[in-house]
Amino acid sequence: VPVSIAPRGLWEASYGSGPLAGDGYFDLALTSGAVTGLETFGGASSLATLAGSDADRLSNILYCPSIASGNVGGVRWFTDLNLINPGASAAGVVLRLYNDNGTEVVPPVCRNLSAGQQLYVSASDLFGLPDPRSAEEGVQGYVQVESDQPLAGNIVFGDPVEGAFLSSLPFLSTSSAKRAMNFDFVATGRIGGVDYYTGLAAVNPSPDRPAQVTITLYDASSAQVARKTVSIAPRSRFL
C-alpha cells in the first residue's frame, strides 16, 4: 500500500480479518523522511496498542519482562508471544521461561524461523503449560529469547475467558538495560470514580551480577511519595 504523508501529517487505516487468513505482521519501508507509529488491535470487549519496532535496533537476545498464564493473583491471564525474523537468512531461536527467582520453569524450546517468517504462539502451548482458562494455578515470570539472527517481537496478554482486558509489550533487548530509567505515568487508587492499580516489573539479565535498584515514586507535583531499594539476584525478576 503506497502512502504519502504530508509534513506533520497523519495516516490511519483499519484492517479486519479479510486481508489475512491467519496471523501476520506489517512492514513499513520509507523512501524518504521518518515517522513514528503505533497499532491498535483487539475485539469488542478490550483494545490494546503497540508502538512500532525500530528496524535498526533489532537484537539477537530479547526479553519479555513479564508473562502470566493461568490463575495468578486470583485473575486469569493468557500470554501470547510474537516473534518475527525480518532478515534474509534463517534464524535458529531458543526460548527460555524463567520464574521470578531466575529458575527455568521448563526445558528450553527451540524453533527455526525462515527469512521473513513469524512465530505467533501462546505461552501455554509453547512451553507446555496448563490451559490458562482452567488451570488451578498460574505461572508468572519472564521469557528470554536467544537467536543467531536479529529478531523483532512483542507479547500480548489479557483475559483468556471473557476478553475483559488486553495489553501488549515489545520484547526488550539487552541494549535497553539502563542504570536509570523513568516510568512516566502511575495511577493507583480511586481516580474519577474508577479504581486503578499500577504494577512494575524489573528483570536483571546478568548471569552472575546482582542489581541494586532504588525505586522512587513521585506525585504530579514532584513531591516524593515513597522510596524503596531492592536487590535483584542474577537472572531474577522483581515484581
Task: Give an account of the 3D structure.
Helices cover 2% and strands 44% of the residues. It is mainly beta and 239 residues long. The protein is globular, with a radius of gyration of 19 Å. The strands form five sheets. Strands 3, 4, 5, 6, 7, 8, 9 and 10 form an eight-stranded antiparallel sheet that branches. It has a two-stranded antiparallel sheet with strand order 1-2. The mean pLDDT is 91. The longest helix has 5 residues.
Short descriptors:
44% strand, eight-stranded antiparallel beta sheet, globular, two-stranded antiparallel ribbon, mainly beta, 16 strands, 1 helix, single chain, 239 residues
What is this structure's SSE topology?
Blueprint: E1 38-42, E2 47-51, E3 59-72, E4 75-84, E5 91-98, E6 109-113, E7 118-122, H1 123-127, E8 139-158, E9 166-170, E10 172-173, E11 189-191, E12 194-196, E13 202-203, E14 211-218, E15 224-232, E16 237-238
Antiparallel strand pairs: 1-2, 3-4, 3-8, 3-10, 4-7, 4-8, 5-6, 5-8, 8-9, 11-12, 13-16, 14-15
